[in-house]
Amino acid sequence: MYERPLFIHLAALAALASRAEHESKEALVQSQLDREFSYWQRWFGTEEPLSSEDWADTMAWLSLVGGVNVDDLRVAVMNMGIAIPRFAEVTADFYSGAVKGMVLPLQPDLLGEALIAQQLGKERGWLIMSRALDDNERVQHTLTVLSRMGADHTSNFQALADDSLQWQRTAMEGLAEAWPTHGQALLNTGRMLGRQTLPWLMVSWCRLSTKQQDSVAAGVVLRGGSTSIIELVVNVGRAHLRKARAEGLERYVAAALHALAVSLSEQGDA
Q1: Which residues pair with 60 in a beta bridge?
Q2: What's the CA gap between 205 and 79, in Å, rounded?
Q3: What is the distance between the alpha carbons of residues 144 and 52, in angstroms, rounded to a whole number?
Q4: How far apart are alpha carbons 184 and 110 in whole angstroms?
Q5: What is the chain's Cα-based Rg?
Q6: In the chain, N or C: fewer CB atoms in 10 Å?
Q7: pTM (2 d.p.)
Q8: Helices of type H across the chain
Q9: pLDDT value at residue 238
Q10: How does pLDDT run across 115-138, given as a tens digit for each residue?
């Protein structure tokens, strides 16, 4: 359990707080999250009891998007149905960054990722994901975080589809919903980050109907340098070809055939 310095540090903090032994990494992380909520609650300075779920949902969202300005936090809090006065402002003050007006996620990343895994599987999980995927920059950061969390599935993305936990299913559903509006951002992020994104991208793509896939494929550009996500590129290319043929667009059919041939060659199916 103590192969990483972080866990030694967490164990020391837990011992100072409760003098109790924690038998697993998960217990150490949860102990630190409990203390973090307690610190935030005291900072809030109210005698009214505050919901740990409201705090956890907000911090899970911040961990997915990588930090925001106060106005964006206020909108996200409102959309999640959190109606506590000054919630966004006090949270922004407590988690303020070096740049004035910016609100940072939990540090180290391991704590934020633990909250993501917890909260995406709960009542507001879908709202957290939808707000984390509502613009291209957030799509990129969210996919980066998910890829880091799902590293075990990099070599076998079918396992992510067949054996997923509730938080993973919520994440995949959110990504599937994001394809029609942010398909190019998802592909660009996949190209940039490489194969670690493939499980999330491929499984969420396969959740789309054929009609949805065709529509998305017609609106994206399949650039070169995509060999690390070539399985996905081939699937998108086939959908593009299917769409062009269905609409009788011969010049697009030729271009789609060429792009698909190049992708199949890169995949080794030439």
Answers
A1: none
A2: 26
A3: 26
A4: 29
A5: 21
A6: C
A7: 0.82
A8: 5-18, 25-44, 52-65, 70-79, 87-94, 109-119, 125-132, 136-149, 157-162, 166-193, 198-206, 210-218, 230-246, 250-267
A9: 78
A10: 999 999 999 999 999 999 999 999
